[in-house]
Amino acid sequence: MRVAREGNSWTKSALLRWVAVAVLALGVFSPKTRAQVKALDAEGHQWWQHAVFYEIYPRSFADSNNDGIGDLNGITSKLDYLKALGVDAIWITPCYPSPQVDFGYDVSDYENIDPMYGTLQDFDRLESEAQKRGIRIIMDFVMNHSSDQHAWFKESRSSRENPKRDWYIWRDGKGPNQPPNNWLSTFGGPAWKFDPTTGQWYYHYFYVEQPDLNWRNPDVEKAMFDVTRWWYKRGVAGFRLDAVDTLFEDPNLHDNPVLPGKNKYADPNTQEVYNKKLPELHGVLQRLRQVADESDAVLIGETWTKDIDELKQYYGEHSDELQMPMDFLFARVDKLSPSAFRKQIAGVNSAGWPVYVLSNHDIERAYVRYGDGVHNDAIAKVMAGLYLTLRGTPIMYYGEEIGMTNNNPQRKEDVKDPIGKVGWPEEKGRDGERTPMQWNDTANAGFSKAAPWLPVPPSYKTHSVTDELKDADSILNFYKRVLAVRHNEPALAEGEYIALNESDPNVLSYLRRYKNEAVLVVLNMSGSEQEASFDLSSQGFSSPTASTLVTTLTTHPRQMSLSSMPLDAFSVYIGKISK
Ligand code: GLC
Ligand code: CA
Candidates 57, 98, 140, 242: which one to mutate for ligand 1, based on the most atoms within 8 Å of Cβ? Predict the structure, then answer.
C-alpha cells in the first residue's frame, strides 16, 4: 500500500486515509466505530460529499405489521431496493415517541422509538442491516421545540419555580387575555399560548403542542447535545436539523413589523425579524458541529434562506457550522428555466458545497411542480438528469424515483395535516406529498395489507416500483442508470462545474471536468426539439464526439457529435469526453 508522505512525517489527511483503509481491510467496522473514522478521498472530500441521500417519511414507506402505518421493519425490508437504486444514506424523518400532532415533529422522548414504528431493537437491526449494505442512517433532530407531552415541558409548566421552567420560553401577557407580543405561529394564530396553571404564556413557533425550547439556557444545550451523542453511539451518521432558522428569539420580545395584507391563515402579514435567523443560532451550530466532528457525522440543515448570502452563513464563516445546509432556493426555481437554474447553481457553488433538493415532506412533489400535465415522465427525467449530476450532494425524496405525484385531499374532512384544516381551502396541508410508497399495482400499492393512513393516489396503477423495474424506459430505471454513472465516473464525483452555452434559453448544458476527463450534461428543458452544439477546445477537449453514458434520446446514440446534437423535446443527454 502506498501512502502519501510529506518529508518524513505523514500529512494528517494521509494518515487518516491510511487508518480508514486499514480499518476497512481488517473488517473491524462496527456501528460504534465506523463513525469515528474519517475517510477522505484524493480530493479531500468526505463521505457525505459523494453520498446520495434519500429521505424516508417512515409513516408512508413500508408497513411490516399491516396496521396501515409504515415502520422501521418496513424500511429494513426495503434496504436491498435502496441499495440497488444507488442510495448511500437514508434520512428518516422523526420516528421518536410522539403524540403525532405534527406526525412526529412533536417529540415526547428524544431517545426512543415510537411503538407505532417499532422498538430500539428494530432500530439497531435497521442500522446493522443498512451498514452491511454500506448505507448510513441520518436521524431528524427536532431542536427548536419538543412536544408539550415531553417530560421536560410537563415539569416546566408545573410551576414557576420548577428547575425546568426556564427550559422553555415563558412570559407574562401584555394584559388580561393579551399575549406578550404580536409574534405569529407559522401554522396560524398567535405564537403564544396561555397556561392557566402558572398564569403565564409559552412560546410556540409551530403548533400549540410544540413549545419552543429555550436555547439561551445552557442546560437545554447540554441535554440536546447529549441526545446527538446518544444516537452517534448507536451508529447514526448524522442529523437533519429541523427548523434551525427559529432557534432563537429576541429576549426583549419586540413586536415584528406588520405588513399590509393577510396570510393564508387570515393572520396579518408580518416580517419575522425578531424571531427568526438571530445571530445567536450560529454559536449553537458551531458547538453542535464540534460534537458531530467527534463522530465524523454530518449535519444537514433545514435552512429556508432568502438568498445566497444567508445560505452562506449556515456553512459558517470558517466552514465550522453545517456541512450540508439545504438549498431550497433551487427547489423554488419552480419552472423549467435554464437561466434561473444557471443562476442558482452558480450562486450555491460560490457559497459552499451545494446540497440539492427537489422536494420533501413539506413541499409539493417535483413531479407535479415541474410537470406540464402531458410530459411529466420525461420532465421528471430531465430534473433527475439535472440535480443528480451537479457538483454537490443530492437529497432525494422517497417515491420521486418512480414519478409519484401529489394527492391532495379533495374535502376538508379528509385532511390529516392540521395546517390543512386551519388553512382550508387555500392551504390544503402536506398530506398530498406524504402518501404511501407505490411498491406495486395491487391493493394499497403493496404498501400495507390494511387501509393506509393516507389514500394511495390512482397513479399506483401506472407508477410503481415493480412495474417500472420491468420497463427499460421507466423513470425508475433512468434514476438507476444516472446514479450508477454518478458512482462510477470520477468527473461526477470530483469534477468542477463549468456552465456551457449560457445564453441558450431552452437547453441547460454543463461540463463536470476532472483531470483528463469530463462528463457533458445536456438537458432540453423545452417542449420542442432543439439542436445544441459545443466547442470544448477552450476547456481543453478537442475530441469531436462524446460517448454516451445515459440518454433519453429515442435514437439511443452510442456516440454523439459535439458540433451538432439533435435533442428531442424534454430530453437528457449525458456523455463522456476524453482528451
Ligand atoms: C419542519 C418540518 C415540518 C414540521 C416543522 C415543525 O419544517 O420539516 O414537517 O412541521 O418543522 O417541526
Ligand atoms: Ca406498521
Answer: 242
